[in-house]
Amino acid sequence: MLHNQEFKIYIITTGDIVSFFVMEIIIGTMTYSLAMKLFHNVLLASAGGWVGTETIKQLKAAVKMLLK
Hints:
This protein is mostly helical. The protein contains two helices and no strands. The N and C termini lie far apart (45 Å).
């Protein structure tokens, strides 16, 4: 019995790393700080930072799709 064996190679570019760093670390910190100033609550600020980052990611994907 022969099995179909696949060998996958994933290439991570410098641009992917920079994009991840900017989106997750810098924008996440900014949205967390903004939410902390608005809500004065760590739980709400954490949720606000997460929601802010995810919203920006979705907007970025939507703009990319519209420009295709």
